[in-house]
UniProtKB/TrEMBL annotation, chains A, B:
Domain Fumarylacetoacetase N-terminal: start-end pairs: 18-114
Residues annotated to bind Ca(2+): D122, E195, E197, D229
Official protein name in the record: fumarylacetoacetase
Alphabetically ordered keywords of this record: Calcium, Hydrolase, Magnesium, Metal-binding, Phenylalanine catabolism, Tyrosine catabolism
PANTHER family, A to Z: FUMARYLACETOACETASE
Enzyme class, spelled out: hydrolase
Positions that bind substrate: Y124, R138, Q236, Y240, T342
One of the GO biological process terms: L-phenylalanine catabolic process
UniProt lineage: Bacteria, Bacillati, Actinomycetota, Actinomycetes, Kitasatosporales
Keyword Metal-binding carried by entry: yes
Matches recorded under InterPro entries: Fumarylacetoacetase (IPR005959), Fumarylacetoacetase-like_C (IPR011234), Fumarylacetoacetase_C_sf (IPR036663), Fumarylacetoacetase_N (IPR015377), Fumarylacetoacetase_N_sf (IPR036462)
Signal peptide (UniProt feature, chain positions): none
Chain positions recorded as Mg(2+) binding sites: D229, K249, T253
Active-site residues, as the UniProt record annotates them: H129 (proton acceptor)
Gene source species: Embleya hyalina
Length: 409, 409
């Protein structure tokens, strides 16, 4: 990969090998969302740059747009072509004079929700997380349900409440019932939690009735973001039998504003953990290079690192999830979002949710500021970050997904 | 209500008191979807009629459109104004000459999906259905989960696979495992079922963080349709613990093409059944006129009536469902769809799903043509219709939602 003429801070996660996409506005034009690409400490106004360099109509059309929808829907050949073009703009010294005026300092832009979520599916792919939650929610029974190693368990969430990083999270109210209570009570959740996850954003859709096989993953998935699946554990515990989580999750799901192109993640691909159950053929990824991804995640609570979940430990890969989600003929649309499920490794310091870290509040978490937490308090801010291996020893940054809790209304 | 100058067949469900909205194309202009209103055996080209009578710009703007989104999002005062205007066009003899050229015989139009589904939520509000399914899926335990009478159980479904009536339904494949099997197998579902339901379509959205109370139901819900929540029972039974139904439902959900305005249903409002658990205040509809609806539904399999589910028997009303769905601050968007759950009365002939009618196949259903069914066979066609009381002893028709099973691919 050639080097960029854009000045890069040391260890910038936004080097020339990353080029994540987002949508931004400026204070000057708050009603004009535009497609941006992160490079160093700048955001490239991609549509303006396309015009400045005289890009092809195809490239200009998808970049000079108020959203990423056109680029996402255009499919993989276009994704490749656009990425190659932007790489040239940011590396060719002869184009610097044309392109540089369209670099905006990142601190001067407002990052918006980077795509319009169509359907949102949340999976449950960490064996450590599923085991921990089984032990907490269903003590005395086998922690993993009998189906867990045969298929990637998932459910649909609420697409309309997917929000971009830094959107305030209002503490939700609802019905809660402790096992010792005779009847449920109504009020603000007392067990507000996080789930540190990785989100996969579908670009190219598919036809109703046509499954998307394991090998077609990269033709449909546009890119990857970070995701916090905020969860109200007391609401969830009371409501979720028999039809699954609903209001305990549907109040908000935060995503990071930068979508890292799948194409940027070749160096991050790793083998998933050994599976101890023979997969059915449509989920069998042993023949092809699989889609485990070696993302290093960090979860901070009020600035203190409380966990470092290892994404490479996930039992089910995103390619298996996509194959499963469509094997019944369900169609895909541009903007479909599916999330990995909480990322938890085998160690306490690798767990992606407070319910696991504090074992449902039994072991409060001590913070360096002297306070402790079982679940989130009003005013708490949670930030999830991640990096992944890039080419030639570089690291790719995923930016962050962050949210602060505000009191129930 | 004045009478219309449009000739009405005897017992037309599409009289002047109904005026349901839809979206249609013609063979002549297959790529120009337009807003239509059903009246007698005709579809009124609403946008063209608005221009012909010189309607106000507000009315013309929402009717002369390729979708109902503008009208739906405009809110209740606009819904009332537009309905009053259309009523005048179809009743005032002085307007007949202007309006009549814009009536198209219903047989000459193609009815499209009437709205773009945003989020889709499916409830589980029939006590008879939930009890039957509990007995079948979880024999030997209490059929209703402890939460069932405290809150309307629901879950998010797949909005992207909501299809309009008469879309062919491809038999889905997936993982199935009978209790007697050691491991799951993959293949076409052997237990393809229907769920006869009523759908509620949200028009006016709401802000994130702001619940929609029981009393605000009619400010947000634009209208009502029929819905068939196709279900693959073997896939569902294997996958649904612990996070709920997923691929057993997500392959297709069919809706009727006509949205009956909520305003047309005043005469259909009835008290829901007596509840034997005290509702929490946000669900307590005893003080206000409640939203039970006396819809008479019919389910036909290959033309034979197999069930007459009574919608008035539903334990939870749509207003309670909307209040519950938003009590955690979840926002609404125009196009959000929520469904009642399978409508089943206390009698076998009132059950809205084959799993209940045949008791999971134990008691095959005999059809008048000499054949019998446990679940659906390829080529079977299921049609759900409904009527409701209108003003002055009339009946309002909901049209139908129909679908034919085609073999697995």
């Amino acid at each position: 990969m050639p080097s960029t003429w854009v000045p890069l801070p040391t260890d910038s996660g936004y080097g020339i090998d990353n080029l994540p996409y987002g949508v931004f506005t400026t204070d000057h034009e708050p009603d004009r969302p535009r497609v941006g690409v992160a490079i160093g400490d700048f955001v490239l106004d991609a549509g303006a740059a396309a015009h400045a360099v005289g890009a092809t109509p195809e490239v200009s059309a998808v970049l000079d747009a108020p959203s990423l929808t056109g680029l996402m829907a255009a499919g993989r050949p276009t994704w490749r072509g656009v990425r190659a073009a932007i790489t040239t703009w940011l590396t060719d010294p002869g184009l610097r004079a044309s392109v540089e005026p369209h670099l905006i300092p990142r601190r001067d832009v407002v990052l918006r929700l980077p795509f319009e979520p169509a359907d949102y599916v949340d999976f449950y792919a960490s064996e450590h997380h599923a085991t921990n939650l089984g032990r907490i929610f269903r003590p005395g029974t086998e922690p993993l349900s009998p189906n867990w190693k045969h298929l990637p368990i998932g459910y649909h969430g609420r697409a309309g409440t997917v929000v971009v990083s830094h959107t305030p999270i209002v503490r939700p109210s609802g019905q809660r019932k402790a096992p010792t209570d005779a009847v449920p009570s109504f009020g603000p959740t007392r067990r507000l939690d996080i789930e540190a996850e990785v989100g996969f954003v579908v670009g190219a859709g598919s036809e109703l009735g046509t499954p998307v096989g394991l090998g077609d993953f990269a033709d449909h998935v546009f890119g990857v973001c970070l995701l916090n699946d905020w969860s109200a554990r007391d609401i969830q515990a009371w409501e979720y039998v028999p039809l699954g989580p609903f209001l305990g999750k549907s109040f908000a799901t935060s995503v990071s504003p930068w979508i890292v192109p799948l194409e940027a993640l070749d160096a991050a691909r790793v083998a998933p953990p050994a599976r101890d159950v023979e997969p059915l053929p449509y989920l069998d990824d042993r023949a092809a290079e699989p889609w485990g991804l070696d993302l290093s995640m960090e979860v901070r609570l009020n600035g203190h690192v409380i966990s470092r979940p290892p994404f490479a430990s996930m039992y089910w890969t995103a390619a298996q999830q996509l194959a499963h989600m469509t094997v019944n003929g369900a169609s895909l649309r541009p903007g479909d979002l599916f999330a990995s499920g909480t990322v938890s490794g085998p160690e306490v310091g690798e767990r992606g949710a407070l319910i696991e870290i504090t074992w449902n509040g039994e072991n409060p978490l001590k913070l360096p500021d002297g306070s402790s937490r079982t679940y989130l308090e009003d005013g708490d801010e949670v930030t999830i970050t991640a990096t992944a291996p890039g080419p030639n020893g570089t690291r790719l940054g995923f930016g962050e997904v962050s949210g602060r809790i505000v009191a129930a209304r």
